[in-house]
Structures are given as C-alpha cells and as structure tokens.
Amino acid sequence: MATMPRSQLDFSDQNGYDLSDSLMEYSKHLRNAKNQNRLRLLVDQLPNGRKRLHIKGTDALSIPAELYELSDLDILDMTPESKSGMMYTLTRVPINICVLTNLKCLHLDNNDIVTIPAEIGQLQNLEVFTASNNHIATLPDQMRQLQRLQSCHLANNNIEEMPLCLCYLSKNLLFLDLSHNYIRELPTSIYHLKQLRTFLLLGNRLKSLSESICQLSKLETLWLGDNKLKELPKKITQLKNLDWYHQWELSSNFEGNPLEKPPISVCRQGMEAIEKFFKNV
C-alpha cells in the first residue's frame, strides 16, 4: 500500500493504489452495500517523518486484518470528526491494533468505548494514548507494560477507582488526565509516578488525598478543583515545583472544594501560605 503526503484511500474506488486481493474484495463489498456511508482511510506523511492513519466512516469495525500490516505506522487516529460528514463511533477497540507494534500514538477520543482490550499491552512503543469522552470504567492490567508511555488522556469516562496499572508507568509518564470521572480516592502506589509533571483530577469525587501524592516531587501542575476535599495532607508543601504566580493559569487548582484545612482562601495564596497555616495549626 503506497504511503505519501495527504494520500486518501477510498475503498469504494480503486484510485490507482496497489491493494491486496482481500482489500479489493472488501472494496467490492462496500460498492455493493446498501449503506452508502463509506469507510475512508487517510494516510498522512508528517513533517517529522511519522505516518498517521485517520479512519473515517461508519464501517470501521469491519476493517480487514490486512490493513493492520502497516508495520511502520506511527499514529492511528480513530476519533470521529463531525465535519467529515461521516459519523461513526466505536463501541469497542479492534483487537487487531495489537499488531501495530511500532505505533507511538493512539487516539480513541469521543467514541462509545466501554473497555480497552488486554492486547493493548503489546503496543510497547506507545508514547501517547488518548481515550477521553468514552464510557471506560476500568483499564486492563496489561497497560502497565506500556513503559514508554508519556501522555495518557482519560477525561470524561466512568472510572471510579484509579487503575493501579497506571501507577506502574513510572519510567516516562509525564502527563495524566483523569478529570471528570468518579474517582473517590487515590491509591497509595501513586508515589511510583516519579516523573509525572502534570496530574489533572478536576471534577471527581475525591474526599481525601493520600500522602503518597506528596512524593511526586516533579509535579508542576496539579488540578484538584471541583472535588469533595475538606483537607489537604500536610506534606503537600513538599511539592515545591507547583506555581501560584500566574493568576489566570494556575498550575494548582483547588477551587470548588469544601476545604477547611487549609481554607480555600489560604490555598489561593500559594504554597508558602499553606505551609504557614499547617505550622500554626
């Protein structure tokens, strides 16, 4: 299959591409189908040399296995785009993605996905995983095998407990977004994420914070707004890299919590004020 800048494969037409026999049979199936919504595969050659495949259409789960033999594919984008005029949402992740062992970015946002298959653990070169705005409640333990993962986006899902597998992505994970889920507490094993720079937990149901979070010494951004926190752990003052100096772009957000120790008025003043409060309690 040819790969070139902004190439488009429309399986209802041959378009001059050298497709395998099975893909040709699949294209005939789409031509003869009563459903006129087409499956389109857009292959981009990015400036940095990476190759990105963006899938659009309504028949995405019927993609033949041969497609997943693009062994040099770096980015797989399966996020629906309303402007494409071809609406679909995935209800499950095709297990065949496990053969894309060179994949570095997997985008699954804005679908109807409930579970992530265990086979995702085979994508051990994955650096970016985005699956926000789905219905995911848990993650497979095999995700702990993704030791090259740097950025994980899981906002707006149905997660009630922070998956323990995320706590063991300690080598490279820099960014973790679990905002707008239903998380009530953080596991003590969170301390493993020594490289984490950004941790977003807005809009959950946190009533307390494990002191383990205070060991994430490289944290620069910590958003805890709109939870149910009444107090912060005293050792939170160890997070010296959090910044309060940019009024409209606070790296630390505690707003929307019924905080008493310390009160929100103190939290707004920054870490020095929080530290002073605890010394005087």
Automatic annotation (TrEMBL):
Pfam families: LRR_1, LRR_8. The keyword Repeat applies. InterPro entries: Leu-rich_rpt, Leu-rich_rpt_typical-subtyp, LRR_dom_sf, LRR_domain-containing. Keywords: Leucine-rich repeat, Repeat. GO terms for cellular component: cytoplasm. This is Uncharacterized protein.
